[in-house]
Design a protein that fits this description.
mainly beta, 2 helices, 6-stranded mixed sheet, Archaeosine Trna-guanine Transglycosylase, Chain: A, domain 4, binds zinc ion
């Protein structure tokens, strides 16, 4: 289904995942790439209940803003998603950074590594990921504590 240059994919989505997308905490989709998903496409997620084998009637749209097949099963793809509101506001997707205190660097959700000379991300005024442009979100247990290990 193509309209004005972009493609919308109609996809079934199980209730627990659908709700997480609506809540804004699940900003990705892992799918079998049998539809040639591309950045810029839209996913039209339709809540589908596996117990009743029926659509619930709820649906939502998300824009594909990033995709990779890195470390996926053959033929599968991970897509980073953005809501229509975030798109309107020009908000970018988040990039989660995990601090590795063994090797003193951050592993980014977009699969790069980043190390700081000194200090924390905040002290270095790092707000956006230099690789994917996503808003940096530090993984929970991964804060680089000032002074720890010194
Ligand atoms: Zn990134």
């Amino acid at each position: 289904m193509t309209e004005a240059g972009w493609t919308a994919h109609e996809l079934k989505c199980w209730p627990e995942y659908f709700q997480a997308v609506l809540d804004g905490v699940k900003m990705f989709e892992i799918r079998k790439n049998d539809r040639d998903f591309k950045v810029g496409d839209w996913l039209h997620l339709q809540e589908w209940c596996p117990k009743t084998q029926a659509y619930t009637g709820r649906s939502t749209k998300r824009e594909v803003v990033y995709s990779t097949g890195w470390e996926q099963k053959p033929g599968y793809i991970v897509m980073g998603l953005r809501s229509p509101t975030d798109r309107q506001m020009g908000r970018v997707a988040a990039c989660e950074w995990t601090y590795d205190d063994m090797d003193d660097y951050y592993e980014t959700a977009c699969k790069r590594g980043y190390s700081l000379e000194d200090g924390t991300l905040e002290e270095n005024y790092h707000k956006y990921c230099p690789y994917c442009g996503g808003l940096i979100q530090l993984a929970q247990a991964a804060q680089k504590e000032k002074g720890v290990g010194e």
